[in-house]
Amino acid sequence: MTITNPQNNYSESISYIGAFFWTLLFGAFYFAYKGIWSHFIIGIVLAIFTYGISWLIYPFFTYSILKTNYLRKGWIVA
Prior knowledge:
The chain is mainly alpha-helical. About 60% of the residues lie in helices and about 10% in strands. The protein has five helices and three strands. Strands 2-1-3 form a three-stranded antiparallel beta sheet, with helices on one face. Strand 1 (about 1-5) and strand 2 form a beta hairpin. The longest helix has 13 residues, at about 35-50. It is elongated, with a radius of gyration of 13 Å. The mean pLDDT is about 90.
């Protein structure tokens, strides 16, 4: 899926497999890289309380979290 910022026409591609892979590999730090600080903090807290097991579950929701975040910021699905 390609999402476009209407203010400057910058496009970014989001794929389910890519988001899943990078979150599985880097955990909550992937959300920090994307600028989604609330999920970064939630991911770190969950990782501490679940001894890292949440890092195996969080990747399944990453795509929808990214998509929702961009749409809330006013980006348009291209």
